[in-house]
Design a protein that fits this description.
The chain is elongated. The chain is an alpha/beta fold. 33% of the residues lie in helices and 18% in strands. An 8-stranded parallel barrel has the order 7-8-9-10-11-12-15-16, surrounded by 4 helices. Strands 2-3-1-4 form a 4-stranded antiparallel β-sheet. A two-stranded antiparallel sheet has the order 5-6. The structure holds phosphoenolpyruvate and manganese (II) ion (MN). Manganese (II) ion binds next to loops.
């Protein structure tokens, strides 16, 4: 059940509302799409009439949708997330690109030059790398953020990088424009709640073993915590076939769009794990309606410390952007 309120409530008004709830139930108060809301789980609510009698309740929406904010329940039109001058989810295709991990300043520089030449919108690079094996490279950490800061200052480009703990919010704050939640942390609710409070744009990846509903419930944590700057990122699904551990179906895009208004970026690098497939998946994702793509690029792919098999060389990335321009325009989107 969702109550649409006439105004933001004070503590007394909240107490008046909550006395109508069953034991242990509570409202989550938030502002969403310019409306003040109080949301409680449906099953614990007594009657709609009790609430409508209260002077500060404008409307009662009876819904048992598990993610009312992320779904189209309250918002039909597509959401646009603003990052500086950039609009993600608007009429222009968003391109994010950069290395998987930050290695050296020279490596970042080489990629940044390509990024600027192609007018790519967002520079990506990971300083903190949550890896499946504890014996592999875990990222340069804080030193990596310093290298990224130099890129941001020199090229004045928005930066996205993965955050793995709430304590990092402060150190990310003046360097990173979009906080990436990696697949492994998709259901780290402690992190989701902290990033909700930060209010900063968040790119939430779907874990390849999680369902669309589970992913959108995680997005709901960000929205319910008051952060409307949520961008989704699809990076393929685990399959049952050992010959094809991860696969990307373009038909997932329609299903995602039917279930949420949030902007959607497709990551063909992680969705395939294979640089020879990145181009075709990126182009097909744009034709299928993705709002943007996130591509891993490295000046010397064979030397990349992480994800070497899937990163594109700078030359291949330039060639991909030429083709992205053609398909985005064919699909009715502006490219630059
Ligand atoms: C990454 O973006 O480099 C990454 C680790 O992605 P994911 O969380 O999707 O595995
Ligand atoms: Mn990677």
């Amino acid at each position: 059940m969702i109550l649409v309120l006439k105004e933001e409530l004070n503590d007394d008004q909240k107490t008046q509302l909550e006395k109508h709830l069953e034991d242990f139930s509570f409202f989550t108060y938030l502002k969403f799409d310019d409306r003040y809301l109080a949301i409680a789980p449906d099953k614990n609510i007594k009657t709609k009439i009790d609430f409508l009698r209260l002077p500060f309740v404008k409307e009662v929406i009876e819904t048992d949708h598990p993610y009312p904010l992320a779904s189209h329940t309250l918002k039909k039109e597509a959401s646009v997330v603003q990052v500086g001058d950039l609009q993600i989810g608007g009429p222009k295709l968003t391109v994010m690109a950069g290395p998987c991990s930050i290695e050296t300043q020279a490596q970042l520089e080489a990629v940044a030059k390509t990024i600027m030449k192609t007018k790519t919108d967002v520079f990506r690079a990971g300083a903190f790398k949550p890896r499946s094996s504890p014996y592999t490279f875990q990222g340069l950490g804080k030193d990596g953020l310093t290298l990224l800061k130099n890129i941001k200052q020199k090229y004045k480009i928005p930066i996205i990088s993965e955050i793995i703990a709430p304590e990092q919010i402060e150190e990310f704050d003046d360097i990173i424009d979009i906080l990436q939640i990696g697949a492994r942390n998709m259901q780290n609710y402690h992190l989701l709640k902290a990033l909700a409070k930060s209010g900063k744009p968040v790119l939430l990846k779907r874990n390849p073993a999680n369902t669309i509903d589970e992913w959108l419930m995680s997005a709901e944590y960000l929205l319910a915590g008051g952060n409307e700057n949520v961008i989704l990122c699809e990076r393929g699904s685990k399959t049952f076939d050992p010959k094809l551990p991860i696969a990307f179906n373009t038909n997932i895009i329609k299903t995602i769009k039917e279930n949420t208004h949030l902007p959607l970026i497709v990551d063909p690098s992680h969705a395939t794990g294979d640089s020879s497939l990145v181009e075709q998946i990126a182009l097909s994702a744009v034709i299928a309606g993705a709002d943007g793509v996130l591509i891993e690029v490295h000046p010397r792919p064979e030397l990349a410390v992480t994800d070497a098999r899937q990163v594109l060389s700078c030359e291949s990335f330039v060639s991909l952007t030429d083709k992205l321009q053609i398909v985005s325009e064919l699909s009715g989107r502006r490219f630059r």
